From TrEMBL:
<dbReference type="Pfam" id="PF23349">
    <property type="entry name" value="BBS7_hp"/>
</dbReference>
<dbReference type="Pfam" id="PF23360">
    <property type="entry name" value="BBS7_GAE"/>
</dbReference>
<dbReference type="InterPro" id="IPR056334">
    <property type="entry name" value="BBS7_GAE_dom"/>
</dbReference>
<feature type="domain" description="BBS7 GAE">
    <location>
        <begin position="375"/>
        <end position="484"/>
    </location>
</feature>
<dbReference type="GO" id="GO:1905515">
    <property type="term" value="P:non-motile cilium assembly"/>
</dbReference>
<dbReference type="InterPro" id="IPR056333">
    <property type="entry name" value="BBS7_pf_dom"/>
</dbReference>
<protein>
    <submittedName>
        <fullName>BBS7 protein</fullName>
    </submittedName>
</protein>
<dbReference type="GO" id="GO:0008104">
    <property type="term" value="P:intracellular protein localization"/>
</dbReference>
<feature type="coiled-coil region">
    <location>
        <begin position="333"/>
        <end position="360"/>
    </location>
</feature>
<keyword id="KW-0175">Coiled coil</keyword>
<dbReference type="Pfam" id="PF23743">
    <property type="entry name" value="Beta-prop_BBS7"/>
</dbReference>
<feature type="domain" description="BBS7 beta-propeller">
    <location>
        <begin position="19"/>
        <end position="317"/>
    </location>
</feature>
<dbReference type="GO" id="GO:0005930">
    <property type="term" value="C:axoneme"/>
</dbReference>
<dbReference type="GO" id="GO:0034464">
    <property type="term" value="C:BBSome"/>
</dbReference>
<dbReference type="GO" id="GO:0036064">
    <property type="term" value="C:ciliary basal body"/>
</dbReference>
<dbReference type="InterPro" id="IPR016575">
    <property type="entry name" value="Bardet-Biedl_syndrome_7_prot"/>
</dbReference>
<dbReference type="InterPro" id="IPR056335">
    <property type="entry name" value="BBS7_hairpin"/>
</dbReference>
Length: 713
């Protein structure tokens, strides 16, 4: 069916998973909406004749990080539980508070799940299980916990909690112990029971990842069985919320998915293991919560989505417009006309109120006792490395419209094109010498833009800080600065395993340093490493370079560290940065290394196809103008060779690709040059004078000639 949009009331800024629909009670088939916001307010309302009817509203306080429904097992889940700081509060469906449970967590609660008398809570790395508010179990995770879920107790007959962790794994627990880990294709951000009940077995869990992948896995007592997985072919945003509901009315529950780029997706199942995307709808803000149910009118189901800034949007099966006979204009119902006139009145009153408040502010700011107040505003940010194109996405979302964003960096960065970005970008010239200022760009946003996405690509070995100065359209003018670290090995991403058969170079460190100290150096060098020092005496992390596909293994403990990579430049960067960090702390390092000559040839063979492709693309793009001129003069291009005709036919795609990847060829040249210099640096030879000769060979693009030059130099 065609779903039509409805706008419900707005609340404050909302976090992920903070809106639920209460089960329908008594004869009434419509459901009440309950939502918690970052002002600490729990709002419950119903919809009657298109208008919101409040049930209750709590007083403001600390921000609400999660909202869940609970109740005795096998009864309607209509008790409302909210996580505020390190406290859990419970409310009845009428708004009466019946629980205030102050946990023993030292950090704020990030994730919560409730099953009968069992309460599962997670702070950053810590998981706690309580039964009737009494401490039962505790677990310390190896990386940050993003979500928690427990398999349905009535189906699996035991308590099986599942943690979604940032290091791309699900951790399945038994009591306080880790039962096993499930490796995932991306960092999981949200978990949900398949079909709302865990499927027939109760063991099926749907997960969504921060890089937009969706999958279902069966959590048995001994191992996980992957059922299906959907990649993110359309390059959409990360998944924030999932629900199961039969919105298409075919008797089978669909999967409802909300993403951080504002996309709502509906998947239905041709068969149990074959989800198909049926519908999608785009909103302008990230979808923090999604629910399916009957809200606005009895007999008409809808999908309700809560966005970051607190808008509640419904996609309803109810036809909003009633069409007249053929040829007649669309007639609005009396109900709709009344609604429009009441909205107009409300808007006029708000405009008058804004003018009054603005005058009041002007008067108070000019008085002798004036105190300037800086308006606070919330910024939702996400800075992540994309494996597909080895670029960083910086997503900024503000609760109010953005006026402009100034981006500054003290390291060289390439700004890449983003299709969804409608902002106008202008670059300012930088003096990189005295101020280390390599990038200065301003994004001016169109009216009502609350979300901005930027893409940058860094150069490995050059590290520093990227800063974003965010100015929203509010008075008085205010700006917030947000900083993002560009790490020395910034294009590396954590992976579950590496190919041990590749030719590897090894770097070994020994010295009087603690486990915490060497861990802090690794955190400084590489992305996606948990800041907290791992439990135990030794740890191994695996990484892959997203640009080249080379790999890195790092194993370290108190007093020693081992780093293995098939790319000698990676080892060179680590050697330089780690020795610099140790010198800062006055720690003597004994550094030894083992260089594998074969690894240089191996890395060149990995780079060469990319180099060839980019050189060919550049040549084709340079020919386009001349070929187009020929086409205009001659009228047709039949006389051209097929390869030139195909360049003309594909001209727009070629130009688009070239524009999307500026300086790609330069970066590849830079990597090969670094590889050449690093190879001889480990032998104690300076070959910088031979670099011009190397660049000439690169222009020729002959793989054998390139390898021969590396061997002979």
């Amino acid at each position: 069916p065609a779903l039509e949009r409805l706008l419900h009331p707005q609340v404050g800024v909302t976090a992920q998973k903070t809106m639920r629909l209460l089960p329908a009670s008594g004869k009434k088939a419509t459901q009440k909406v309950v939502v918690g916001d970052q002002d600490g307010v729990v709002t419950c309302f119903g919809i009657k004749k298109g208008e919101a009817v409040p049930v209750f509203k709590t007083l403001p306080g600390q921000k609400i990080s999660r909202l869940e429904l609970g109740g005795a097992l096998n009864t309607p889940q209509e008790k409302i539980f909210v996580a505020i700081g390190s406290e859990v509060r419970g409310f009845t469906k009428r708004g009466k508070q019946f629980l205030s449970f102050e946990t023993n967590l030292t950090e704020s609660i990030k994730a919560m799940y409730i099953s009968g008398a069992d309460l599962f809570l997670c702070a950053s790395y810590i998981y706690n299980h309580y039964c009737d508010c009494k401490d039962q179990h505790y677990f310390l995770s190896g990386d940050k916990i993003n979500d928690v879920l427990c398999l349905p107790v009535d189906k699996v007959n035991c308590i099986t909690p599942v943690l979604a962790c940032q290091d791309r794994v699900l951790r399945v627990l038994q009591g306080s112990d880790l039962l096993y880990e499930v490796e995932l294709p991306g960092p999981p951000t949200v978990l949900a029971h398949s079909n709302g009940n865990g499927g027939d077995s109760g063991e099926e869990i749907v997960y969504g990842t921060s890089d937009g992948k969706l999958g279902l896995t069966q959590i048995t007592g001994t191992k996980a069985i992957p059922r299906w997985e959907i990649g993110n072919e359309k390059k959409r945003g990360g998944i924030l919320c999932i629900d199961s509901f039969d919105i298409l009315g075919d008797g089978v529950k669909e999967l409802l998915v909300g993403r951080d780029d504002g996309m709502i997706e509906i998947y239905n199942f041709e068969s149990a293991d074959d989800p198909v995307l049926r519908h999608d709808y785009g909103l302008s803000e990230s979808i923090a919560s999604i629910q399916g149910g009957c809200v606005g009118k009895d007999g008409y189901d809808e999908i309700l989505a809560a966005t970051y800034s607190g808008w509640l949007t419904g996609l309803t099966t109810e036809p909003v417009h009633r069409e007249g006979g053929s040829g007649e204009e669309l007639k609005l119902s009396q109900e709709m006309q009344n609604k429009i006139s009441s909205l107009r009145n409300e808007l006029e009153q708000l405009q008058i109120k804004v003018l009054q408040e603005r005058d009041k502010y002007k008067q108070s700011s000019h008085s002798s006792t004036a105190v300037s107040s800086v308006p606070a505003f919330n910024v939702n940010e996400k800075f992540t490395l994309n494996r597909d194109d080895a670029s960083y996405s910086l997503i900024l979302e503000v609760q109010t419209a953005i006026d402009n964003v100034l981006v500054q960096s003290d390291v060289p960065l390439d700004l890449l094109d983003v299709d969804k970005n409608s902002a106008v970008v202008s670059f300012s010239s930088c003096d990189s010498e005295p101020n280390s200022n390599f990038l200065l760009a301003t994004y001016r946003c169109q009216a009502n833009t609350t979300r901005l996405e930027l893409k940058v690509r860094s150069i490995e070995g050059q590290y520093g800080t990227l800063q974003a100065y965010i100015t929203p359209r509010i008075q008085p003018k205010t700006c917030q600065v947000h900083q993002y670290q560009i790490k020395p090995l910034s294009l590396h991403q954590r992976t579950h395993s590496i190919d041990q058969d590749r030719p590897m170079n090894t770097l070994m460190l020994k010295g009087q340093f603690s486990f915490a100290e060497i861990h802090s150096w690794v955190v400084f060098c590489l992305p996606e490493v948990p800041e907290k020092t791992p439990a135990g005496e030794c740890i191994t992390f695996y990484f892959q370079n997203t640009f080249l596909g080379t790999q890195l293994e790092s194993t370290y403990r108190k007093g020693e560290g081992f780093f293995k990579s098939d790319n000698i430049s990676t080892i060179s960067i680590l050697k330089d940065v780690l020795s610099k960090e140790a010198t800062k702390r006055k720690i003597n390092l004994n550094i030894s290394y083992d260089v594998n000559e074969e690894s240089v040839r191996h890395t060149l063979k990995l780079i060469h196809p990319k180099l060839e492709y980019q050189q060919l693309l550049a040549k084709k793009v340079h020919l386009i103008d001349a070929l187009r001129e020929l086409q205009v003069h001659e009228g047709n291009v039949d006389f051209l060779l097929p390869k030139y005709r195909s360049i003309l036919e594909e001209a727009d795609q070629l130009l688009e690709e070239y524009k999307r990847q500026p300086a790609h060829l330069e970066r590849l040249y830079g990597m090969i040059t670094d590889l050449f210099i690093d190879k001889f640096k480990f032998k104690g030879t300076n070959v910088k004078t031979k670099v011009p000769l190397l660049l000439e060979i690169l222009d020729g693009c002959d793989q054998d000639g390139l390898i021969a030059f590396f061997d002979a130099a």
